[in-house]
Amino acid sequence: MPLRELYQALFELYGPQGWWPVDLNYHNLKGTDPREEIIIGAILTQNTSWKNVERALDNIKSYGELSFRFIRESPIELLKELIKPTGFYNQKAKRLKEFCMLFKSANELENISREELLKAPGVGEETADSILLYAFNRLSFVIDKYTFRFIYRYMGITGNYSELKKTFERQLPKDLQVYKEFHALIDHHAKYFCKSAPRCEACMLKNCLRVGLSF
DNA sequence: TACCAGGTGGGAA
DNA sequence: TTCCCACATGGT
After folding, report:
1. Which residue among A93, A117, A135 closes a domain?
2. Which of A100, A120, A152, A161 could pair with A68 in a Cys bridge, judged by C-beta atoms 3.0 to 4.6 Å apart?
3. Is the domain of A151 the same as that of A201?
4. Whose C1' is closest to the CA of A43: which nucleotide?
5. Helix axes A34-44, A89-102, angle to 10 degrees
6. Interval A7-16: pLDDT, tens
7. Which domain holds residue A192?
8. Is residue A144 assigned to a domain?
């Protein structure tokens, strides 16, 4: 089944996922930039469940302010304590702080190239694409662990990050909402059904499977 | 108890 | 270039 049809099937099944969740009321009240929350969240969510990221974001909000400025001006030991629920807190605190020293605000990232973003501390391919797509509305498809599994099982396609990224970007319409929703839908589907130990018996899309489940 | 989660970066081969 | 491993908390 072509990617576009898989997207339609997932969308009809689960509806819009509304990524990336940001509390606009909070930012209006504080006068902070919601894009900075997305970027901070993108770094904190690395190899961590979103629930734990929400805990860390709440800790930051309660103690100070969800902004680059707060991260930059806070002592590293305090940052470690606030983001502890996300795991890997030593390296995440260090990289987050370095990132916010390098870029004083989200405004400085508005026109950054993907290549430049990849040079920033704590930013690999997935984080860079998440930032570009969800914070800056740039057409850059995000590939993650779930996507590798999903596209192999449903389309028999394997490859490295950039190969899969090209596949999605070639086959999908150049539509921001499709990019944002498709990535979120794949994650949702993979989290509940297309797990590493798959739950095919309960999966509504099992008839779309193309290959085995050895991924 | 063991595995997995909205990965990255450094070092060895 | 590619592969392997450390990084760490919290849920199932």
Report:
1. A135
2. A100
3. yes
4. B7
5. 140
6. 999 999 999 9
7. 3-17+140-208
8. yes
